[in-house]
From TrEMBL:
Region (Disordered): 1-25, 323-342
SMART domains in alphabetical order: 35EXOc (SM00474), HRDC (SM00341)
Pfam families for the chain: DNA_pol_A_exo1, DNA_pol_A_exoN, HRDC
Entry-linked SUPFAM superfamilies: HRDC-like (SSF47819), Ribonuclease H-like (SSF53098)
PROSITE patterns associated with the record: HRDC
Name this protein carries in UniProt: Ribonuclease D
Highest taxon, organism lineage: Bacteria
CDD domains linked: RNaseD_exo
Domain HRDC: residue ranges: 247-327
Length: 427
């Protein structure tokens, strides 16, 4: 444990008077197992009447609210929430079933002016938004850990290194759409929010000690204010193994199979991978099978696949094979930014030199500040500035360009002068 982590852990101990039993950090380096929620496993809220009671309790609570959500990734279609966990001083913990209570906007409304504590907020916010829960303010304990320089920032690792408790993480990848939810899963879910408030308080003090608290606040505000991500353009291009597909006709097969699979998965409410694997789609695209028999011989299409299933996949292949040349997809995606860095030396050696100097400067500063480079400034932002630098490249003009690309004020103040120097030195 680093000095910073020890300081944070000691701070946490002083601030968790109402914390779990056996207050204390790891004894002789051994974390204390956290086996039960302090008030026991709360009942699952699945009716409007029970939800109204939770809303009233959390409205009367004090301080920030810890929030988490469980999805059924790999089992169900999409990223819908199947369990929402909350904890707040004065209200205790709550487990809410979004299947029985699909509209949580009433709960979101009473917590609108409250700080929400989430771990890896960008993962949970989309599914929370779908059910009416949208924070105005938040504290992301994973991002706080990154900024503070912790080497491992998973929730279990953070709770262990900062607070000295060991969380049981065995149910993180289960099918949370299962009903009824088994008691061990509910215990795990309740424990995920058990110490989030304590963790938040300890990390806030550690960030303040390092002089990074204002940076974190700007980052949290950017997450809370970010609009929903637009639908991804041509999502079929992200099929695993797509790099093997070179010909446009083969790309059309990937597109048709991906689209057919997605339609079936959505109708059945199952993960697309359970309908047809990415590997099978790529095999069919490369082989361009002439008929159902040939398709059935390919990896991923044999086994339990019935004649009817094979016919629907072959129909997709045949549609792609019948397309006129003008309707075939183009290789790659439209380039909206600079080319890949590996091509810079040939396309623009001066720009390549700028990028090398900028990367070196950013890497050195990130190491000095003890944080990942991507949290200091995104690599894409650095590439864009170096490919098309402002003229003249002064700290002011570079700062304006960074702001236009979404950089926060703290990032501009730290990185702007470095980039301006790198741009002018390599001109």
């Amino acid at each position: 444990m680093t000095d910073a982590q020890e300081t944070a852990a000691e701070t946490a101990l002083r601030t968790t008077g109402g914390g779990p039993p056996d207050d204390g950090v790891a004894v002789d380096g051994v974390p204390i197992p956290l086996l039960e929620p302090r008030e026991g496993i709360p009942p699952v809220v699945a009716t409007q009447e029970a939800l109204d009671e939770v809303i009233a309790a959390f409205a009367a609570g004090t301080g920030p609210v810890a929030v988490d959500a469980e999805r059924a990734s790999g089992y169900r279609y999409g990223q819908k929430a199947y369990l929402v966990q909350l904890r707040r001083e004065g209200a205790g913990s709550a487990l809410i079933d979004p299947v029985g209570c699909p509209d949580l906007s009433g709960l979101g409304a009473v917590l609108a002016d409250t700080e929400w504590i989430l771990h890896a907020a960008t993962q949970d916010l989309p599914c929370l938004r779908e059910i009416g829960m949208i924070p105005n303010r938040l504290f992301d304990t994973e991002l706080a850990g990154r900024l503070a320089g912790f080497p491992r920032v998973g929730l279990g690792a953070m709770v262990e290194s900062v607070l000295g408790y060991a969380l049981e993480k065995g149910h993180s990848a289960v099918d949370w759409s299962t009903r009824p939810l088994p008691e061990p899963w509910l215990r795990y879910a309740a424990l995920d929010v058990e110490l989030l408030v304590d963790l938040r308080d300890a990390l806030e003090k550690e960030l303040d000690r390092q002089g990074k608290l204002e940076w974190a606040r700007q980052e949290f505000a950017a997450i809370a204010e970010a609009p929903p991500a637009p639908p991804r353009k041509d999502p079929w291009r992200r099929t695993s193994g797509m790099h093997k597909v070179r010909r446009r006709r083969q790309m059309a097969v990937v597109r048709e199979l991906w689209t057919a699979r997605d339609r079936i998965a959505q109708r059945r409410d199952v993960s697309p991978g359970k309908v047809l694997s990415d590997a099978a789609i790529i095999e069919a695209a490369l082989a361009l099978p002439p008929n159902v028999h040939a398709l059935g011989e390919l990896p991923g299409f044999g086994g339990r696949a019935g004649r009817r299933q094979l016919e629907q996949w072959q129909a997709a292949v045949d549609r792609a094979k019948a397309l006129p040349e003008s309707e075939l997809p183009q290789p790659g995606q439209p380039v909206t930014g600079p080319p890949p860095p590996r091509a810079w030396a040939d396309k623009d050696p001066v720009a390549a030199a700028r990028l090398s100097a900028a990367r070196t400067a950013v890497s050195a500063l990130a190491e000095q500040l003890n944080m990942p480079q991507e949290n200091l400034i995104t690599p894409d932002t650095v590439r864009r500035i170096c490919w098309e630098p402002p003229k003249p490249a002064t700290p002011e003009t570079v700062g304006a360009a960074l702001a236009a690309l979404g950089a926060r004020a703290w990032q501009i103040k730290l990185v702007g002068p470095l980039l301006a120097k790198a741009l002018t030195a390599s001109a």
